[in-house]
């Protein structure tokens, strides 16, 4: 087994696996020169310091600047933009003065399409400076000549933590291109020495920071509840002893495990030390019992389908995805949501922001070109959702048609309500244009579109241009966008996203669905019995 050089305490893992030989090496193909600095700066002064450091970088170097929080990165990017430096991002809390390949910000708020564009530009050598949070530290191969890491020290703890810092330093050095890499670490607002931090790895779980609230179905509690279901399946009443052999669970206080088990019994997922039928279904489908219970509560409370099944995305944090982009406007939008659902008590899980996203509330913000943050659902995300819905349907725990599932998948992926969800699947349309189309079609008395063939009304140009002008406040751009949309629609494409449609067919039919991969999406829809033809 090969390990990354940043994995801490490899000897512990070797002992756990019973390895007879452990080989450690500090070899690096490109040596890194490392320096640590200490700052007494915060807020705007820290942002100004970072801006000046970026402006002073050598012209022939590619640099990654790691910041400990998004707000700081956005502040630095806006200051650089105001000074005329070209920005590659299109979805930001501000509208850049100039677009181009000098600097970009990579963080979890940036839509997937933009993140991939930013990564490609940096990888190809076009983008010079990349500001990033720790999202870039793992799993993405983007070496740089210089890595600059800003670390906040607070009460003896460090943000980002030590393991993240090791990962960030590992980006320094471009093999085969430069003889040396550089790593600069700036520790600010901390009196203790930085080296002490390397001895303080944060625990995965601890009794001080872990509690169980069944309404908080997202995160650690959901995963532990699934692990308990698995332990009950294999060990029955001895589930606790079985589960405590898992290293990461050993640090969970026993009373927390007992509380979660009691909850599972109370909700009917476990009975007499055995899984009930619904318990088996949830374990088989990797569906969190907490998330399922919350989904059921919403469906029984007659919450609309798209918001009811939000808990099935228990692995996604949606909360506060829009705050940076909408600023003060988010308060009035949250009140609008509360006014609509004043009789239902939602947990603080970002359902209100999801409602804003699928109901087109973001369209008239020109700084939002793609769904930001966790609202940027990938194809993989919606495949997982469809699999969960199919599992529940096949076992009689939810009533939902194939077309409903396809609409749900399109709604989450493209930020549209169920009635107009198929619009998002037209090539070249996307999130903004699809919502502009939705508003235009409503003016023509159309309240729903189906999958398959669809004839758009003639003379849509004036309405399209009106809504596009409301978004961009630029007549020239609105006219150009209108012409682009009309050209796309004139192709007469079948409504629906090809990847979603074929992916759903595979999920539903298994091996029998493989034959659909070579068909066009219209043929697949016909085979599924969905759509207008």
Report on this model:
- The protein has about 525 residues and is an alpha/beta fold.
- About 40% of the residues lie in helices and about 10% in strands.
- It is built from 21 helices and nine strands.
- Strands 1, 2, 3, 4, 5, 6 and 7 form a seven-stranded mixed sheet that branches. Strands 8-9 form a two-stranded antiparallel sheet.
- Strand 8 and strand 9 (about 275) form a beta hairpin.
- The protein is globular.
- The relative contact order is 0.07.
How much helicity do the residues have? 40-55%
How can the largest sheet be summarized?
7 strands, mixed
What is the number of strand segments? 9
Q: Which consecutive residue ranges, at least 5 long each, have pLDDT under 50?
A: 190-195, 197-208
The chain-level mean pLDDT equals: 86
How do the helices and strands line up, and which of them pair or pack?
Layout (H helix, E strand, L loop, with lengths): L9 H8 L14 E8 L3 H13 L7 E4 L3 H13 L20 E4 L5 H12 L5 E4 L13 E9 L2 E3 L2 H8 L11 E8 L31 H16 L3 H5 L10 H13 L3 E2 L2 E2 L1 H8 L4 H12 L4 H4 L14 H4 L2 H12 L10 H8 L20 H16 L7 H13 L15 H14 L17 H12 L2 H15 L8 H12 L11 H8 L5
Parallel strand pairs: 1-7, 2-4, 2-5, 3-4, 5-7
Antiparallel strand pairs: 5-6, 8-9
Helix pairs in contact: 2-3, 6-8, 6-9, 13-14, 15-16, 15-20, 17-18, 18-19, 20-21
């Amino acid at each position: 087994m090969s390990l990354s050089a940043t994995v801490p305490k490899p000897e512990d893992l070797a002992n756990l696996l019973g390895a007879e030989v452990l080989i450690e090496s500090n070899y690096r193909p490109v040596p890194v020169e490392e320096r640590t600095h200490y700052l007494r700066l915060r807020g705007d002064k820290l942002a100004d310091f970072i801006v000046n450091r970026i402006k002073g970088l050598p012209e022939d170097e590619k640099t990654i600047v790691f910041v400990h929080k998004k707000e700081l990165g956005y502040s630095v990017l806006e200051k650089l933009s105001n000074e005329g430096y070209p920005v590659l991002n299109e979805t930001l809390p501000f509208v850049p003065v100039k677009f181009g390949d000098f600097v970009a910000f990579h963080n979890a708020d940036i839509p997937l399409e933009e993140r991939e564009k930013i990564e490609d530009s940096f990888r190809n050598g076009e983008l010079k400076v990349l500001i990033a949070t720790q999202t870039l530290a793992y799993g993405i191969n983007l070496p740089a000549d210089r890595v600059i890491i800003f670390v906040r020290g607070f009460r003896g703890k460090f943000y980002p933590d030590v393991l993240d810092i090791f990962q960030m330093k590992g980006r320094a050095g471009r093999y085969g291109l430069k003889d040396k890499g550089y790593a600069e670490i700036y520790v600010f607002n901390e009196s203790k020495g930085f080296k002490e931090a390397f001895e303080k790895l944060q625990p995965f779980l601890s009794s001080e920071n872990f509690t169980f609230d069944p309404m908080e179905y997202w995160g650690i509690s959901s995963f532990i509840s699934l692990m308990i279901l698995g332990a009950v399946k294999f060990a029955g009443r001895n589930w606790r002893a079985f589960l405590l052999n898992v290293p990461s669970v050993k640090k969970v206080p026993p009373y927390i495990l007992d509380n979660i088990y009691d909850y599972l019994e109370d909700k009917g997922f476990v009975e007499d030390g055995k899984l009930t039928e619904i318990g088996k279904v949830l374990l088989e489908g990797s569906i969190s019992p907490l998330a399922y219970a919350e989904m059921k509560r919403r469906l029984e409370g007659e919450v609309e389908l798209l918001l009811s099944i939000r808990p099935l995305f228990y692995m996604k944090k949606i909360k506060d995805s829009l705050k940076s982009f909408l600023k003060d406007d988010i308060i009035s939008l949250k009140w609008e949501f509360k006014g609509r659902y004043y009789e239902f008590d939602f947990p603080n899980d970002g359902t209100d922001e999801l409602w804003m996203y699928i109901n087109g509330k973001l369209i008239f913000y020109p700084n939002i070109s793609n769904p930001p943050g966790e609202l940027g659902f990938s194809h993989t995300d919606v495949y997982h959702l469809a699999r969960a819905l199919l599992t529940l349907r096949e076992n009689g725990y939810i009533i939902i048609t194939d077309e409903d599932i396809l609409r749900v998948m399109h709604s989450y992926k493209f930020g549209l309500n169920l009635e107009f969800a198929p619009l998002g699947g037209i090539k070249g349309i996307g999130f903004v244009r699809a919502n502009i189309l939705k508003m235009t079609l409503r003016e023509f008395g159309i309240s729903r579109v189906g999958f398959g063939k669809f004839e758009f009304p003639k003379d849509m140009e004036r309405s399209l241009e009106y809504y596009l002008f409301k978004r961009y406040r630029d007549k020239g751009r609105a006219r150009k966008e209108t012409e682009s949309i009309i050209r796309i629609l004139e192709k007469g494409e079948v409504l629906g996203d090809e990847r979603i449609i074929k992916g759903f067919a595979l999920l539903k039919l298994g091996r029998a669905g493989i034959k659909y991969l070579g068909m066009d999406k219209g043929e697949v829809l016909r085979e599924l019995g969905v759509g207008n033809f």
